[in-house]
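Treating backbone geometry as a discrete language has practical consequences that deserve illustration. The sequence in question and its structure tokens are set out directly beneath this paragraph.
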Amino acid sequence: MAEYPRGSEWRRWDLHTHTPGTVKNDCFAGGASIDARWDQFYSDIVTYIGDGTDAAKAVVALGITDYLSIENYQRVVAEKRLPDSIKLLLPNVEMRIQPTANDSPINIHFLFDPAFSSAIESRFFSKLSFSYADTNFSAEKSELIRLGKTIDSSLSDEAAYKKGVEQFVPPLDAIKKVFEKVRNFVST
């Protein structure tokens, strides 16, 4: 017992944090530019968390969340603009799956080890499969754009990407197959 005289410490984690430019439900759409929205995002976090000494506000871990993407997670990691009191950043991949409940697909989140982030595209998104109009699509960005353009060929790449993310709703079995094929989700 002498090794841990204080006992357990409870710390706050927020594992569902969307950023500006999130593919769906972007709540940061009011800024003059995307850079201004990102500045406001970081400012809001710093204002809320402060220097990390207020236990009621201190957050030590964030899950940077987006639909079928970790691009914004990678941006947050690269920019290093979060308070030092945040000790852990996790990529949180959000998506919808079948079956539907109350006329809406089920929402699911995948929290990945940050050490695995460089392999998520090749070992998770590329392996995940969804069939639309007798054609299979993976969850890679280029495939989501292709799915969106299959649905509406007049869409720009950006609009097609959003449409593809919106329509990519695989059955639970498709996710199980990924984890059966890729048993060891560690960095490569």
Notes: Residues 126-182 form one domain.
